[in-house]
């Protein structure tokens, strides 16, 4: 076997590079581009990009909409970066934090000719790196040469496509007994995705019967709610109530999925909170940042349940999207068990928005 990294390993490396501000090279057919994340890129590297040609700032259509820029490529927009724009200007376009105080950002010209495949891949990578979904992209005539000379990670878009669409294989690393206040007979299982992304956990209460629907909760990580007791959401009380119910019934399984901030990461969630302080609701804040309402992948939860031997659940949730996704992934939902706890004056508007815009059940 070759010692060289596989494409999946190269994708993990590309995510790490982008987080560090290091450019990566993307290729597709005869074309190739240099890519750098708008959030972490440096002025010196932007100048180096400019020596290659005309630089585009790729944004999601969601972010482009706020900036009143036309998105000709469906879900992404290729904004022609003005020659005078420096990294501060780039970050002003990528990050909505000063949109209200400095609204004059246009008019922006977006590209409509050519192919956006590599640009779309650049956005996918910045999202999976949990950065702002915005990337600086410049075409290069000899992408393989550039990657070799500067020791940059190079990803071929066609080879990468299947890895980006399918869920990475999960390894069950270990499990051990952890007595909890809510249930003394609990075990914590660790699942590690093969693609180097975050680990996920399953807390198994008692010895649930695999042949009957198990009381289950798919809980997405919420550092602020679960650990700090934040009053802005209902996550902490939901986590505790779910475990308490499983403890009372004597069996259940709680998946703790590391999909902080509905899959955008904690830093972006805090950006969303800052926008909420400017008056935007939870959905609008995600959109202004360039994200969809919910960037989570619930196939993950279904896969972990299957790996643990469960085929059916009694799902503790108010979110119909979780039920639909479980069913689509072959886990039957015998019953929805409502989980309404933790309402308070600080999260009243947040919960109302989730009911009105995301279809959460009351
Ligand atoms: N982007 C974003 N994420 C948030 C915000 N408030 C909470 N979250 C995240 O939302 C997720 C809530 O997860 P869950 O409680 O599992 O999911 P849910 O969709 O509310 O569904 P149920 O609780 O099962 O009804 C967590 O990942 C939180 O970190 C917010 O204002 N913006
Ligand atoms: Zn929360």
Automatic annotation (TrEMBL):
Claim: Hydrolase is one of the keywords in the record: yes
Cofactor note: Binds 1 zinc ion per subunit.
GO-annotated cellular components: cytosol
Top EC class of this enzyme: hydrolase
A GO MF term: GTP cyclohydrolase II activity
Pathway listed: Cofactor biosynthesis; riboflavin biosynthesis; 5-amino-6-(D-ribitylamino)uracil from GTP: step 1/4
Record keywords, A-Z: GTP-binding, Hydrolase, Metal-binding, Nucleotide-binding, Riboflavin biosynthesis, Zinc
Stored InterPro entries: GTP_cyclohydro_II, RibA, RibA-like_sf
Keyword DNA-binding attributed: no
GO biological process: riboflavin biosynthetic process
Binding site for GTP: 217-221, 238, 260-262, 282, 317, 322
Residues forming the catalytic site: 294 (proton acceptor), 296 (nucleophile)
Residue sites binding Zn(2+) per the record: 222, 233, 235
Gene3D superfamilies reported in the protein's UniProt record: GTP cyclohydrolase II
Cofactor(s), names only, from the UniProt record: Zn(2+)
SUPFAM superfamilies registered for this protein in UniProt: RibA-like
Superkingdom assignment: Bacteria
Ranges where the GTP cyclohydrolase II domain occurs: 173-338
Catalysed reactions, as listed in the record: GTP + 4 H2O = 2,5-diamino-6-hydroxy-4-(5-phosphoribosylamino)-pyrimidine + formate + 2 phosphate + 3 H(+)
Residues in coiled coil: none
E.C. code: 3.5.4.25
Family of this protein: Belongs to the GTP cyclohydrolase II family.
PANTHER family found in the cross-reference section: 3,4-DIHYDROXY-2-BUTANONE 4-PHOSPHATE SYNTHASE, GTP CYCLOHYDROLASE II-RELATED
Role played: Catalyzes the conversion of GTP to 2,5-diamino-6-ribosylamino-4(3H)-pyrimidinone 5'-phosphate (DARP), formate and pyrophosphate.
Database matches in HAMAP family: RibA (MF_00179)
Name of this chain's protein: GTP cyclohydrolase-2
Record organism: Salipiger aestuarii
């Amino acid at each position: 076997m070759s010692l060289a990294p596989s494409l999946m390993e190269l994708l993990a490396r590309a995510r790490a590079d982008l987080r560090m501000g290091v450019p990566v090279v993307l290729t597709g057919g005869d074309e190739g581009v240099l890519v750098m994340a708008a959030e972490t890129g440096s002025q010196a590297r932007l100048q180096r990009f400019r020596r290659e040609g005309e630089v585009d700032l790729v944004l999601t259509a969601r972010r482009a909409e706020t900036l009143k820029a036309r998105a000709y490529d469906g879900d992404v927009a290729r904004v022609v970066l003005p020659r005078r724009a420096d990294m501060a200007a780039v970050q002003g376009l990528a990050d909505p934090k000063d949109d209200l105080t400095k609204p004059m950002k246009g008019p922006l010209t977006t590209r409509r000719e050519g192919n956006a495949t590599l640009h779309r891949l650049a956005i996918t990578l910045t999202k999976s790196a949990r950065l702002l979904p915005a990337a600086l992209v410049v075409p290069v005539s000899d992408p393989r040469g550039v990657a070799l000379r500067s020791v940059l990670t190079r990803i071929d878009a066609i080879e990468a496509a299947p890895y980006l669409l399918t869920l990475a294989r999960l390894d069950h690393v270990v499990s051990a007994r952890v007595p909890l206040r809510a249930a003394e007979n609990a075990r914590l299982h660790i699942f590690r995705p093969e693609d180097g992304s975050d680990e996920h956990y399953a807390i198994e209460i008692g010895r649930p019967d695999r042949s009957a629907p198990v009381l289950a909760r798919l809980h997405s990580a919420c550092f602020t709610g679960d650990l700090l007791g934040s009053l802005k959401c209902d996550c902490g009380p939901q986590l505790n109530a779910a475990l308490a119910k499983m403890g009372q019934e004597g069996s259940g399984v709680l998946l703790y999925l590391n999909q902080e901030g509905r899959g955008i990461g904690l830093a972006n969630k805090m950006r969303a909170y800052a926008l909420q302080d400017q008056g935007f609701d939870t959905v609008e804040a995600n959109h202004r940042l360039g994200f969809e309402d919910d960037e989570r992948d619930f196939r993950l939860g279904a896969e972990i349940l299957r790996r643990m031997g469960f085929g059916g659940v009694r799902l503790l949730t108010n979110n119909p999207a979780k039920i639909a996704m479980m069913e689509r992934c072959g886990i039957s939902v015998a019953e929805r068990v409502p989980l309404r706890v933790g309402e308070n004056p600080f999260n009243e508007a947040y919960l109302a928005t989730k009911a009105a815009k995301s279809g959460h059940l009351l």
